[in-house]
Every structure is written in structure tokens, then in C-alpha cells.
From TrEMBL:
PANTHER family: GLUTATHIONE HYDROLASE (PTHR43199), GLUTATHIONE HYDROLASE PROENZYME (PTHR43199:SF1)
InterPro entries linked to this entry: GGT_bact (IPR051792), GGT_lsub (IPR043138), GGT_ssub_C (IPR043137), Ntn_hydrolases_N (IPR029055)
Keyword Signal annotated: yes
Family stated for the protein in its record: Belongs to the gamma-glutamyltransferase family.
Name of the protein in question: Gamma-glutamyltransferase family protein
Taxonomy of the source species: Bacteria, Bacillati, Actinomycetota, Actinomycetes, Streptosporangiales
Amino acid sequence: MRPVLLPAAAVLIAFVPAAPAVAAPAEPQQKVPVATGYGGAVATVDLDATKAAISVLRRGGNAVDAAVAAGAVLGVTEPYSAGPTGGGFLVYYDAARRKVHTIDGRETAPKAMTASSFEGIPFEEGVTSGLSAGVPGTVATWDLALRRFGTLSFRQALQPAIEVASKGFVVDQTFYDQTAANAARFKDFTSTAKLYLPNGAPPPVGSVFRNPELAETYRELGRRGPGWLYGGRFGAEIVATVKRPPVTPGSTRNVRPGLMELSDLTAYRALLREPTKVSYEGLDVYGMAPPSSGGSTVGEALNILQALPHVGVHEYLEASKLAFADRNAYVGDIPGVPLKELLSDGFAKERACLIGDQALTPPVAPGNPDGSYGPCAQPTGIASPTAKEGPETTHLVVADRWGNVVAYNLTIESTGGNGIVVPGRGVLLNNELTDFTFGPAPGDPNLPGPGKRPRSSMAPTVVLKGGKPVLALGSPGGSTIITTVLQILLNRYDFDMNLEQALAAPRATQRNTAQTQAEQGFLDAYRAELEARGHQLVLNPEIGAATALEFLGRDKVQVVAEPSRRGGGSAMVVRSR
């Protein structure tokens, strides 16, 4: 046993075919972060989304049906993190075929975008603009997932979200705080101010927030299908908003128009991709391939740690530092990403040999994943910085009675996306294109380009043992997603924590940056030890907001959400016994 790393710290869907009666527990009226039971399980950041997914499972739907229903509800209740005009990545374990599939629903750049489109633009000015809006991938993801792996129609899967948007949800402190933090830019767009700043201020905590325009948008999507967005009237309205943002008269904000055309929407496709895979201590860890860097960076760090004789806090930070150096140098939506070599044991051993008693001085240089590995090769590449990446994403996990599992990250990038609501549609646009490197940066794999998908850190992850799932997890948090997922895996499998402890434990994130960000509990426990070894630490009050589930044997499953981060999450099972 290796040493411990950290201290432990309903919407009914009448049209789904009725399943056999089960002893369903009473619906909670408040978020509960941990649930254990049988017949299926769900964890999201939001009680309404979790209830919707559980309702789908109870009435005979499968994990994909439930995940899409929950994702659509999150577009209502977590609109600053998710929505039909965003994107994401979905990892699905198919129990019947014992196979892991992944769907790439990442947004794409318009055909008119070039490597220099963001050059000279301040980052925050790029965020709040039409220029930052990528071609949405979420609706295409839902459609592809349902057609290939689900049992519900597209229209049926949207019904819970329509009901929540119509009837409303209770504003909590997190929603209020996020609205207030965005109020200065929300007021600069007529459509956004009308929806999210009624009477000129954020909706108060405890009030009921309704979004009838989004309810109607979902109804039309259900009636007309995804083509209504990808080339139809809704798509035309998105393009018009991108090209002519509805700026409030008198606003002094410099709002740049975007480059999107209707033909960009018509050309969009969500893609089935092969997952990444590494073996770690007898487990098979599956994740997302590029343009996500989640699977490759988590996987490389696990390989590096497995090559070390001892793993503790110091080694965790150093492995993450090295993996991020290689991520920044090699991973993007480009041909020829050396994914096989980045995830090879030989490359991991070559990188692991650089880890000693003292911290490597960041930024460290990338390695050379060329297939020819010596006992301890010194890197000769040039380090590149870890670019800014919006922290607000959301993640959910679902398991059904048949053993199918979904881990799903969806996002609109920054909190509130680009700040612009499509007039009459009740939905914010994304700012995903600011995930590209702004440049100039010759040779950077993540420079923008026509049709490219910006590199992401989203890391929905499914872990198998003997071909069957044992764990699924993921988190929001921008580039801290990778370290959050990595740390939870280490907590669970190396450091003798159960799943609840693994999520609750205090976090730290090292992404090849001069300072390691850490939560207060981590600083309290490890600051003196790590600073003595050359690490520089700085407070980050909150890192990630994970959801996860674990199979406990005999069809029993435990599902876990955050107890407090980002307001806490909601976990439920179909039946408790």
C-alpha cells in the first residue's frame, strides 16, 4: 500500500414504456451528495437535472436517455455552464457489447477563422464577443447519442427540460452569485439583460426563475429535429446574433462581431472517436482523445506515476507538470498527434526518470515522444504556457440497470459563455473559441483555423476491471479538470480512500505553471513539506466540482457529487434496496 496522498476529508415522462414496479425512495427536496442502491444511479450538480434522469431510468430508459435528459435540464438550471448552443464530450460504456464509445461534440471554428483571428485582442474582450462563439455541438451530441445508443426519441428526451423551463426552478446562492458576477456585461446586451437581470438586477435567492423562451426553443427542437439548428431557422438566428450582437444602446463595450455563417452550422457533425486507454494497477482507464487533452494528459500522468517506485504528494504534482508540458506541445485538433507514444510505457519511463526529491523548475520542457526511449533522456524542446481556459463546465454520471454507464462533460466555456442571449430563444452563446491559443505562436497545435475544434481539458473517464465498469468520473474546472480527475483516481486507488472521501479531499493543481494552486485544506496539510522541496504554492479556494459513481458488487452502485464545492451536487439511485 502506497502512503496516503490527502486527508479524508422529478419530472415523470409518461411516454417512456413503463418498467416493472420498483420500490422508489421518496424524492429528496434538497441536494444529497451521496446515494447508494440499485437499478441505476445519477449524479449532477443540480437536483432538477438529477431527478429528471432518475425519472427516465425508473420508467425504462437507459443511461444515454437519462444523460441527454439531464443535460437538457442543466441547460435550464445551469445556463451559465451548459446549454444547447454549447458543446462537450460523452464517454459511454455499452454493457451488451462490453465496449467503450466516445462522442466528440466539441464546437468548431467557422471556415473564415484563421490562425491570426485572435491576435492582438485582449482575452476578456475576445470572450465577450461574437468572435468567440463556436459552431455548437451539444444538440448534435444528443442526437447522435440517442440514435446510436438510446431508446428515447429526441423529442421525448427534451420533455423534462421543457417542463422545468416552463414551471421554473428556485434560484439558489450559486445562480445568484454567478448572475451578479456577470451583471456588468449582461446589461450590455438587450436580450441578456431582459432574461437574467429582470428589473435591472439578478433574480433574488429563493425566487422562481422561469425561461419560457428556452422552453419554446426546446419544443421546436423536439418538433423539427436538430436540422432546425444545423441549417434551419434557429441556426440562422444564431448566426445573426453572432454577426450583429444585440448591444444595449449607449454601451461603451467594444463587442466584436463573429465569423460564423449558416454553412458552418450545416457542415457540423458530432463524431464517434476511439477512446484513449491506459492500464493502471490492473485497471483500464478510458477517456477522450483529441481535441480533448483530458484522456491523453490524465493517461500520461498515470503512466508516469506507475513508473515511479514511490508516489506521494510531490510525485503527483511532478507527474502532472510533465504531462502538461507534453500536452501543450503536442495535443490539439491537428493531424499527427503522437497519441500512441504519449501514452506509451517507454515514454512514461523516460519522463518519470526526471522526477527527483526536489521540484522541477516550471515551465519544464516537453519530452520527445518519438518511439526511441533511453534510460533517462533530457528534454530538448521549448516549454509553452498553459493557456487560459474557462472554469465553468458541468459533468454528470449515469448508470442504468443493465450496467451501461455514461460520463458526460458539457459546457459553454466561461461562466455565462460570451454573455449574449440569442434574442427570443432564451439561450446563451458559447465562447469556446477562446480556448484556442491567441498567438502569435508558430507551431502551436492549438492555434485557431477553419473548421478546427479548440483543445479542451474535459476528461469524462470510465474505469474498467476485467472488461466491466468499476468507476466513472469527471469534473468542470477548465484545465484543472485534468488534475481533479487524476487526483480523485489516485485518492481512490492508491491512497486508501473510498469514493466519497476521494471527492471531498482537498485538491491541488499543477499544470506546468510557476505556482501550484491549492485549496486551503491542502495547504494546511502539505505546504511546509512541499515548499521545502521547491514547490511554490498559492491559494485557490475551490478546484473542480466532480461527480462520480462506483460499482460495489452484486449490482450495487454508489454515486457521489460534491458535498460543498460550487454549492454541492445531487446524487440519487433508482432504489435504495
